[in-house]
């Protein structure tokens, strides 16, 4: 940064408020407080006037109910589900149906899995037969070399 740019406050002289200024600020603060108190007293006198009650349809009236009344309300009318909830329930049911069909082997994916398993089983059986044949061949070689 070139010389003569922005400077910090370190080189500046400090400024102090005088006692007279502090006293005048305190007096003005006290005056404001008194004004606020007097205005609040005026407002309290306004509260004595009758209040107009308006029926607001957006305001929900909260009434206390007993637990027995709530149970009756819940059992009497089942709550309607929203569209998202209905879709979620339908999705879960479809998933259950698919899992049942898959377990029974009726889906395309299940058939492909079973075919793949059959191929793997055959490969494992062939590998096991090879190992047994190699084992027998080694044993025969070992027996032939001993005699």
UniProtKB/TrEMBL annotation:
- Which residue stretches belong to region Disordered? 1-109, 126-147
**Casein kinase substrate phosphoprotein PP28 domain segment(s):** 56-137
Q: Where is the composition biased (Basic and acidic residues)?
A: 24-37, 81-96, 126-141
List where Acidic residues composition bias occurs.
38-49
A Pfam family of this chain: PP28
Membrane-spanning residues where? none
Q: Where is the composition biased (Basic residues)?
A: 1-13
Which intervals carry biased composition (Polar residues)? Answer: 14-23, 52-61
InterPro entries reported for this sequence? Casein_kinase_sb_PP28 (IPR019380), HAP28 (IPR039876)
Q: Name it.
A: Casein kinase substrate phosphoprotein PP28 domain-containing protein
Q: Which organism is it from?
A: Ciona savignyi
């Amino acid at each position: 940064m070139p010389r003569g740019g922005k400077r910090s406050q370190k080189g500046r002289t400090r400024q102090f408020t005088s006692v007279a200024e502090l006293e005048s600020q305190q007096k003005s603060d006290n005056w404001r407080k008194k004004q606020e108190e007097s205005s609040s007293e005026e407002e309290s006198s306004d509260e004595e006037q009758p209040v107009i009650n308006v029926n607001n349809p957006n305001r929900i009236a909260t009434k206390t109910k007993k637990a027995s009344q709530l149970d009756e309300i819940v059992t009497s009318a089942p709550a309607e589900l929203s569209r998202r909830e209905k879709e979620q329930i339908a999705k879960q049911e479809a998933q259950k149906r698919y899992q049942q069909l898959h377990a029974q082997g009726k889906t395309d994916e299940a058939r492909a899995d079973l075919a793949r398993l059959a191929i793997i089983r055959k490969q494992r059986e062939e590998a096991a037969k090879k190992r047994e044949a190699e084992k027998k061949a080694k044993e025969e070689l070992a027996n032939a070399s001993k005699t």
